[in-house]
Amino acid sequence: MPQTADAHGLREDIARCVHCGFCLQACPTYLQLGKETDSPRGRIALIEAMSSGRAAPGAPPLLGHLDLCLQCRACETACPSGVPFGRIMETARGNVMEGAAAPLAWRLRAAALRQVLPHRRRIAAAMALLRGYQRSPLRRVLRRTGVLGRLPRPLRAAEASLPVLPREPFAAPPQPPGLTRTVAMLRGCVMPHLYPRTHDATVRVLNRLGYRVVFPEQEVCCGALSLHAGDRQQARALARRNIDAFLEAEIEAIVVNSAGCGSTMKEYGALLHDDPAYRERAARFAAMTRDVLEFVVAETLPALGEVPVAVTYQDSCHLVHAQKVTQAPRALLRAIPGIELRELAAPDRCCGSAGLYSLVQPAMSARLLADKMDDVRATGANVVATANPGCMMQLEAGLRQRGIEARVVHVIELLDEAMQAAGGAAP
Amino acid sequence: MQSLERALGRERVISTPDELIAYEFDATIERGMPQAVVFPESTEQVAAAVRVAHRAGVPVIPRGAGTGLSGGAVAAAGGVVVALTRMKRVLKIDVVDRVAVVEPGVVNIDLSRAAAPYGLYYAPDPSSQRACTIGGNVAENAGGPHCLAMGTTTNHVLGLELVLADGEVIEVGGHSRDVAGYDLTGAFVGSEGTLAIATKIIVRLSRIPEATRTLLAIFDQIDDASGAVSAIIAAGMVPSALEMMDRNIIRAVEPVLRCGYPLDAEAVLLIEVDGLEEDTVEQAEAIDAICRRHGAREVRLAREAADRELLWAGRKSSISALGRLYPNYYVLDGVVPRTRLPDVLRQVYAVAGRYGLAVANVFHAGDGNLHPNLLFDEREPGVTAKVLDAGAEIMRLCVDAGGSITGEHGVGVEKRDFMAWLFSGDDLYAMSRLKTAFKAGEDFNPCKAFPTHAGCGEVTQAQVRRTAAAIGPDLYV
Q1: Statement to judge: residues B402 and B437 lie in one domain
Q2: Is A74 within 8 Å of chain B by CB?
Q3: CB–CB of B131 and A22 under 8 A?
Q4: Domains held by chain A: number
Q5: pLDDT tens across B8-54, in order?
Q6: For residues B428 and B449, is the Cβ–Cβ distance under 8 A?
Q7: What's the domain range around A36?
Q8: Looking at residue B13, which CATH number applies to its domain?
């Protein structure tokens, strides 16, 4: 592992920060706490101190501040100097993980991810268990007897925030004949189990636009969760497997409907830059990756039918801040007859989902979600659209807790509805 | 520290050395390590924190967002930083009186957003307005591009609630125009946190103008741009803003923000007029003509609100975008009479050239308020000293031209030893007596604004002091 190259890169990334403070008001945790230690600028100072040896690398208060970062990258959008904060945070967490002072909680998290993420069967088995549990009387009993209250916090948070899983996970559907162009689609780890309807909608939309959709069998997790947890080695291993799996197919693009995954896949080039065997293919993979909304907006849309709903759109952080895709979802929503788009007060502020964040930082996550629900309620919208499964789960949990009458969808589902409303089967 | 935790609660105090690193700096290159940072949420808690510090005899440093450009929020002699970021409520907007009452931690732009539904806004608009706080603006008497027509912060503050050094809470000024007695509100605005801590601020709100027109004039010669500035003012016009950006600023900003500043231009002027629809049309036409007469190769008019916002986004991000060119900037805040602008600007480039330093100029041309940014990498040995020397020379240029060392950033730590160029010992003594009147001793934001004593042992400071002494004898204006 070329540690020195990373250290040099980290120093140069940090040197870009002129500590002007323009990032402060973009940072969800700073807005909640008002503390520099929980702001991008302050975290950069703490990371600098750890990497230069001024502060102990494993100092618990400092790691706590790194942990509280959502990695939403809103600060990157706000930064006029282009400080790559996401990369700084990933490198800092990576350095902690690879150093002697890595805290037990971090190691356990990374180890757990290693046990699960590379194995689609294990995920499927776990999801089947969950599906069974949710549909059994056990859940009610556990809730009533208060056993759930005694679970460790992450488990309790997960139990409360998970939506009821659909009966059947996603299975690649039969596609209409005669489609001449081909794209590959990432199924992802949890999305086939949590939101098969989003995948179905995505495939139908792509079919209607003339694309056959293929699903490489050897696909694994994109690596985002490992990367954010500081496990670069694992992230690289997963990236290599995906590169092998996807580049084997004859495809025009790799389409992703999970903003978090897409963001990491677009960064494979940087992630494997020091791996001569994969560097070029990683860059090619990254260049071929498109968020589904970004991909679809560039196509000529067929006639759309009416979808008479009031929609508010929550920017998924890894779409707006990491991939800089802001207009595509809005353009698509506006293109659908009958939709009234009502903007949130702060649509590009994180809802608190942030990958594993809602599980490991439930208190801060809940504060952010509460503010988000206030904003949703103020719009009066009856549909909340977004672009990432984590956001969908979090928003659904928020609406449920607050008793707000609205449904959560991925933008692509509304487009699918509009296409269906226009009638006519896929070509 | 324990008494602070007792007084405010543990969650409102940071005192572990590792965490305090996040409070060592503001937006300048100054550094100073506090012993604690407190996060009061009410006037009472501010008073409690101040009392604890007072009894312990440690310095108190008020801090807003820490976006200041003179080191005003840096704990130059250690002490307790009182961070006002949690006091961020807009307490009242009085639409009829056009007055707002705010807590000090309210972010500048948030006040204008809160007032917008009533057709009102808060006029002073520092470039950092998306992040900086009204409290910090009051402390530094902050300006901004639109202060050309609207005046600086002091013209918009009507009254204050203050916590004095011993914890006593007083009120000065009020909701309306009031000239009875001493103008203590005026005395406080711009006092850089050396007198007291404002816990409530009563500000004037202004009507959003009926029409606004924004022009971008593009020049191949910087002298032509300066000439156009003088000509616009000489023609008797008062644009609401008149800003200049030079080539290096354009290079930093344009590639990312794509605001339409041509990369091959030597300078651009961003000019705004507002008022009644017909007036702005006329004024914009007149300004367009003047710019072309003075060598502008092109003058563009922003067609839509979005174009206008983009032009301003570039201007307001200028200094913060300099990290794309160099890791550090040292931004100066000199003021010169407008007629001396072309001449002084030429000398600024000459000084930077002599020191072998890159310089980027972005400034309020209409006010004669220059912001030369000396660009460098502080990791390069000896370069910081060189930058400070060059900075001192440029400050001296401004003073010699009949101007001043600060137009809106405040004196802070950075420029306090240049104060002797402007004021005699007697003048400074008279000013320091004001501190006594406010019961603020040496421990209230020490090492700021006055060319004071030892014990403010920052590296950069020592260098400035040496340079200031070396440049020349005291000059009184």
Answers
A1: yes
A2: no
A3: yes
A4: 2
A5: 999 999 999 999 999 999 999 999 999 999 999 999 999 999 999 99
A6: no
A7: 3-102
A8: 3.30.43.10
Residues of chain A with pLDDT under 70: 1-7, 154, 424-427
B69-99 confidence digits (pLDDT tens): 999 999 999 999 999 999 999 999 999 999 9
Rounded Cα–Cα distance for residues B438 and B177 (Å): 23
A45 domain-assigned = yes
Pair of tokens at residue B329: 């900037």
Question: What residues have CB less than 8 Å from A295, skipping those under 6 apart?
Answer: A183, A253, A255
CATH of the domain at B443: 3.30.70.2740
Kindly state whether residues B346 and B454 are assigned to the same domain.
Answer: yes
B105–A82 CB contact, under 8 Å: no
Interface test with B, best of A8, A10, A18, A349 (most B CBs within 10 A): A18
Pairing state between β B197-204 and B99-102: antiparallel
Query: Considering the domain boundaries, does residue A370 fall inside one?
Result: yes
The reply to whether B400 falls in a domain is yes
- The two tokens of residue A348 are 């590009």
Residue A21 lies in a domain: yes
* Terminal Cα distance for chain B, rounded: 45
Tell me the shortest Cα–Cα distance from B440 to chain A, in angstroms: 27
* Residue B264 in tokens: 């091959």
Task: Report chain A's terminal Cα–Cα distance, integer Å.
Answer: 50
B217, B207 in Cβ contact below 8 A?
Answer: no
Chains A & B: contacts with CB separation below 8 Å: 115
Q: Which amino acid is at B7?
A: A
Q: Residue B467 above 80 pLDDT?
A: no
Q: Could you say which of A52, A69, A102 is where a domain stops? A: A102
B-chain residues within 8 Å CB-CB of A56? 18
Domain count across chain B: 4
Q: What is the domain extent for residue B28?
A: 2-83
From the list A20, A24, A43, the residue facing B319 with the nearest CB is A20
Band (B176; pLDDT cuts 50, 70, 90): confident
Query: Residue B376: CB partners within 8 Å, gap ≥ 6?
Result: B326, B327, B328, B329, B330, B357, B358, B383, B384, B386, B387
* Pair B310, B441 in one domain: no
B454 pLDDT more than 60: no
Contact criterion met (CB below 8 Å) for B193 and B72:
yes
